[in-house]
Amino acid sequence: MPEILFESTFWLSVLQIIAIDILLGGDNAVVIALACRKLPEEQRRRGIFWGVAGAIGLRVVLIFFALQLLALPFLKVVGALLLLWIGIKLLQPEDDDGHGNIEGSTHLWGAIKTIIIADAVMSLDNVIAVAGAAKGNLGMVVFGIVISIPIIVWGSKFVLKLMDRFPIVITFGAALLGWIAGDMVTGDVVVKPYLADAPSWLHYVNAAVGATFVVVTGKFLASRKTAAAAPLHEIPLAANKDHS
Amino acid sequence: MSTRILIPVDGSAHALRAVEHALQLARLDPALELHLLNVQIPVESGHVRLFVGHEQLEDYYREEGLAALQAAAAVLQQAGQAFQQHIAVGHIADTIARYAQEMAFSQIIIGSHGRGGLGQLLLGSVARDVVNQSPVPVTVIK
């Protein structure tokens, strides 16, 4: 049914993909900006360009494989569970556990390599969520990614500001992941036959249950974690003398 | 003890109005100590830290922070006014309020874009949040 591609469900899925990419892709934009920071101006632009191009290509390939996998029995259920977990994790305050161990490169190729490796590692959540939202349509995935990656790369400052001013944006993103997860379960090869006689609105109910579950559980866990506020993080200035 | 005034700046025009106001106060009372503060929104998640070193992040914040402080610092320098500048990382309004309290400031002077109605509703205001959260007196300059 190709005509269905031009109906509202198509655009709804594209909007979901863009929202996921922007919310979960901020990390990647930061790595791209930081990996290229030490490069000379002209190389920096090339580094960002090729890093982004490589990241887009890699993302499409990963999602292509994810879409194949999701056609297997039970894997949509597994994917949905992972999505619920990612959504709940999105609502948790940051832990201070990572260690930077890859040096920011002063070579163009080093920077591009960092960007692409980082993208492969950090886009797993993204890949599952987008594959869930796309419901098997790779064209939609490519379209959503091509639109959202430039927004992430050149608009990441704005997205960060938005999330700082309005933390509700993050809650919305977590709810969206839960929604996709709930919807995804009803599409699983094994689950689907059992739902053959169910009313068509069932997958909406399921999606709403998923969204509610993620927000309620995530908020509850987060409220137990934020006992002690982190100390002020001040950046020492090299020359903080009195100016006069 | 001298009166310490904290002026949060972000490189915008309304932040500069707050700086000008503080400058006028300092001219009337030379005992006033002026401190500029820029707050950077944290960009690192657990994932980012796997790929970017701590020092690199600090460099990044320092560079971005100094760029945001630059215009305000220039105004005070030109006026021959002594001042200090600081960069902190965190949620903006929350960090300003806590910085003022923990570093024993007597007052915050902050600029506001002065948008009302729909603009206020959509964009909110860091100044308003600071007023709500700060235990230290806040002067808002429009």
From TrEMBL, chain A:
Membrane topology: Multi-pass membrane protein
Pfam families in the cross-refs: TerC
Domain of life per record: Bacteria
Keyword Lyase: no
UniProt keywords, alphabetically: Membrane, Transmembrane, Transmembrane helix
UniProt xrefs under InterPro entries: Integral_membrane_TerC, Integral_membrane_YjbE
Subcellular location: Membrane
Residues passing through the membrane, by range: 12-36, 48-67, 138-155, 162-181, 201-222
Family: Belongs to the TerC family.
Record protein name field: Membrane protein
TrEMBL record, chain B:
Pfam families: Usp
Residue ranges that the Swiss-Prot or TrEMBL entry lists as coiled coil: none
Domain of life: Bacteria
Domain named UspA: residues: 1-142
Span of the signal peptide: none
PANTHER family: STRESS RESPONSE PROTEIN NHAX, UNIVERSAL STRESS PROTEIN UP12
Assigned protein family: Belongs to the universal stress protein A family.
Name listed for the protein in its UniProt record: Universal stress protein
Organism: Vogesella fluminis
